[in-house]
Amino acid sequence: KEKISVEEKSKSIIVIIDSGINVNHECFEDKHIPILESNHLNIPFKRKIVAIENYTKGKVLTKATGFVDFNFSENLNGHGTACASIAAGALTELKWLKDISRISDSKIQGANPFARIASYKVFGDGVTVDKSVEVLKNSLLDAMKKATLDKVDVIMVSLNNDDLSNISSYLCDPVNMGGYLAMKENVVVCTSSGNHGDNYYTLSGGLTPWVIEVELCNFGGRFITQVELGGGTQIKGFDSFMDKDVDYCELIHWSDAIKAVGTSKGKEVESKAETSQLQKKKMEIREDVKGKIIYGDGEIKGRIKELLNVNVAGILCSSQIYDSRSYELHRPVIYVTKKDAIKIQKYIDNSNRREKKAKIYQTVYEEQKGDLCKPDICAPGEDILCANKYDAQNMYAHYQVMSDTSMANAVVAGILSYIKTFHKDWGIARIKSAIMTSVIKSSNAAVLAMGSGCINPLKAMNPGLVYDISPEEYRRYLLSREGELEYLALMEENIEGEKILGMDLNLPNFNLVLDKASEYIFNRTLTNVGCPKCTYKAEIRLHGRTFRRFGEEVQEAFPGYINISVEPDVFNFSNIEERKCFKVIVRSSMALRDQLVLAHATLIWREQKEDNGITVSSPVVILSTNLWKKRPSNIRVPRKRKVKQEIGATPKKEKQIKL
């Protein structure tokens, strides 16, 4: 209800720590934004883009394949530009968007189109990290320190920080240490959580309570391209952007589309299994594939550009559902799931040449109800239309569609900057509490995969109550973790004083690994930031869970031997900033050592009003010790991760767990 001028809205600054940005892209048009004057920022344009800095120049091994990229602060690979456009891109009209069925509006914009952007480049294109990990960690930390000194509002980091070791420290990680320093200066840090599935052990990135961990969900919609095989089988394709139908064409396998150098018919290629790595390099695309639809699996991905150059009618490519994906517009490249890929292969194998054909339909935009993926918070991150590298020869190449946690992280960064516009004095704890307790929940999501839920920006603006944590309380929490003391000392922090255990840190969620019949108590404090005079009543909502056992869907009720209560369960507030303390008590009447138990409940503080009362929701998750031990043997409790110089956050060998 509060109105703020454009001048006030445009004071918010988001730092994009990524691969740089393309400042000339049309989505960064800034005529609607007032000129910003600053004494501490390097402001080249004074409007939308307020800082461009390069932390990679001269800091890379000579072996790096993309060495030239490190000499420029601009973006050459497109990832940083995409993230910046999603977070704070200006309102832009794309008339050709109307070519896509079911899209009613041809205008796009970022999550907060009024926010300004500061780009701090810490990695480049096609770089292989060898022994320069420490240098890269320092570059990232230097960028975060500079952003904190610049007094920005939000720092967004979407990097591949996945390799773990078993050192029991959060602060050895540059994102966590940089986030700690930023938290003390009231700067919010958000980071992506990984692109490797929705299991509870696949989390990576910002595992500390002062960093916001973001995962993707598909609230909103997806671009769907229907494929029809000659036998009438319908297959739903994705990651494509077709503005018209492609009529029935001959369908062939990738192995029939190539030939060995020096042959005309490719007879030497008898099977994919017989094609060695050396032979692959000598394979050419056959000239007679023009006008045909080509199907292939992993091998085809590296040859897509060559196939398009010979004017194939379309390309069908199998893809993992959790692949980090991006695709350029108006290219007849359609990805299908592994399950549908098997159908296509069977159709090709069991049909004669004349019958083998397929048809590709115009892309349709389908609304989605939303499946949630991982904590702390989720945001739309699938099929996001965003800026691409600038190409003066092709207007369609200015944009791309991307799907991964980096996109979701950019959405959250924009929303966080907008919330900070209205609540300038709020720190990371209040903002994190506001977005986590006001989410859109999905009943069909696994509890350990969903975090609190999907971000709801309108409700997060006025959360009613928040779980607040001071910088001093974060410091005292770190005192309870021996591995952090060395790093606290390096930052000249006091390493003496009373400790706060994890269960007593004032977080907006409740998580417990339960191993015996006992009673566990969470101590929490709520701060009123809504109406001066209001009453809230607590309720515990117990959830069953649905899972598959031996191929069948099984529904399981909440365990009857676990009891959750709240004391006290009613609060009467009379002033803004008034604080009230309460306890959440979890009692188990039996030991759970030999059982596989996952219990999920929600604590809801409901404002006592006739209509439109505010609700403040927090997840309660209980695991048995045995279930915790059943995670893959190579998974360790999250301690330390090194920075890998790649886009996104895709775990390779060891993955992190957040509870």
Automatic annotation (TrEMBL):
Coiled coil: none annotated. One of its GO terms (molecular function) is serine-type endopeptidase activity. One of its GO terms (biological process) is proteolysis. PROSITE patterns: SUBTILASE, SUBTILASE_HIS. The active site is at D18, H79, S406. Gene3D superfamilies: 2.60.40.2310, 3.50.30.30, Peptidase S8/S53 domain (3.40.50.200). PANTHER family: PROPROTEIN CONVERTASE SUBTILISIN/KEXIN (PTHR10795). This is Peptidase S8/S53 domain-containing protein. It comes from Gossypium mustelinum.
